[in-house]
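Creatinase
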Amino acid sequence: MHQNRVNKVLQLMAEQNIPQMIVSDPYAVFYLTGTWIHPGERMLVLYLTQSGKHKLFVNELFPFAAAVDAEKVWFNDTQDAVAILADYIEKDKTVAVDKNWPARFLIGLMDRHAGSAFVNGSEIIDRVRMVKDAKELDIMREASRLNDIACSRMVELVKEDLDEAQMGKKLGEIWEELGAEGHSFEPIIAYGANGADPHHTTVKGARKKPGDTVVIDIGCIYKSYCSDMTRTVFYQSVPAEGKKVYEITRDANLKAIEKVKPGVTFAALDAAARDYITEHGYGKYFTHRLGHSIGLEDHEAGDVSAINHDVVVPGRVFSIEPGIYLPGNLGVRVEDLVIATEDGCEVLNRYTKDLLVVG
């Protein structure tokens, strides 16, 4: 068990008068124990209590879970796992349940009256996970370093006669060569007008033509942690509007990054980029929030948006990714990951943001 992380969770539980919690999300279980358990349809629960008598309820199908430094309660496929769990829960006290626990387990537990009340405990785990420790930050620096290398190779591949899907396949080969653990999300390779869809799915047979933007939004997993970045380049030539849109987007990225420091709200970061884009006449074409938190998952709790008035604290890692999307024409996005520091931020992506014409 990562006792320091567990202690932070217990502290937040105490502040909210929560005596016991069911941790069920595999990412949260890994974060607190250091062991990956992917239960599939089977029940998995790390049961945390203020008394410190933590227990891991786990199917015998996963014998490696014995490595977890907590009392194990084993069950098999012929047993009623929810009934077993119910016998251990303090029925006269509130139970917090974190996210992504199937209703068939939660409702079964509620039907057994295993707890005086059930509350959403997701925010407790999320709040602790938001602030990365030194070990996590070092891993994420390396994940972004690998991403920079991969991005540089993808930009070079723009010179070749490859469709979007073939570019995506090449990226998988690059991750394998670099020693990454695969994609942190399905990569977005978008040519020309396809780039006007921020979450475009790569298309087999989609070809680029001179003057097209090429959006390259990629990320890898390294030692279980994610990276994420976007660069947009031009193929063979740059149309006048494309150049203008690119420079506005890049400068919006830089303005938001410059504003990152402890005490600033995430809404203010969003505004720094959004207001700049709006002032230049493209506000309605910036159709998404400025960024998202990242760590074990590519998108974690806590975003960079106009409605998030939480303040930046050191150790938070998030994206800064303004974009302008002109339907039927082009799309431009420039994305970096940043670590909030004591006096500003550290930008994890080093690959150039200069306007590049490739091919």
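thats it. The longest strand covers residues 229-235. Residues 196 and 331 are 4 Å apart (CA to CA). bye
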